[in-house]
């Protein structure tokens, strides 16, 4: 079992995902739903989309180390509560690993949309507001404009679904872990 100053790493490592994952989920929702803020918080979402899965991976890895070192049953398995807790952690990791590229692709398409709108080079020819967002009816004849918007809507729906699942898994993994440590009886 891996320790730090004679303490198992897992109780220390679980605090990073408890901060980074909710921050990612909230920032990603703001990024997806409030277009004028996208330029300002895009870099935050990008950094959190790397930090949050890394933090969850560290918590999952250290949790497995802790369970293998202290909580194996006589037949060499984990108790059911630990299996459930580890399963929630694994699911959260996979959800975040799926969310990250969806957000990255959405961001690439958003930047392409802004660039096309700003250059007016056959793309969006509608006027822009001070934030660089389109302002007014589009007179675009750019065939990529419509496709880009459709793909962004689909990616946004997928991202919102993953954000909801991620929020639920954060609750489940945290609740199951605290039940093991603190119990309710």
UniProtKB/TrEMBL annotation:
Transmembrane helix as UniProt keyword: yes
Transmembrane segment boundaries: 12-34, 41-61, 92-109, 150-171
Protein name as annotated: Uncharacterized protein
Region (Disordered) location: 119-144
Keyword set, alphabetical order: Membrane, Transmembrane, Transmembrane helix
